[in-house]
Amino acid sequence: MFSVTASPTAAVARAPPSRRARRVAARASAEPSDVSTASTASTASPATDRVTLGTSDLSVSATGVGAWAWGDRSGYWTDDWKGQRVENLEAYKTLLRSGVDFIDTAEVYGFGKSEELLAEFAKDVDGETDLAAPALATKFAPIPFRWSAEDVPRALEASLKRLGAKKTALYMQHWPAFGFGADGCNERFLEGLCLCYERGLCDAVGVSNFNADRVKAAARVFKARGVPFASNQIQYSLVYRAPELDTGVIEACREHGVTPVAYSPMAQGLLTGKYSASASAQSVKGPRGGIFTESRLSDVDGLIQTLREVGDVHGKTPAQVAVNWCMAKGTVPIPGAKNASQAASVAGCLGWRVSEAEMQALEKAAAMAPKSPGAPFEKW
Question: Whole-prediction pTM value?
Answer without folding.
Answer: 0.85
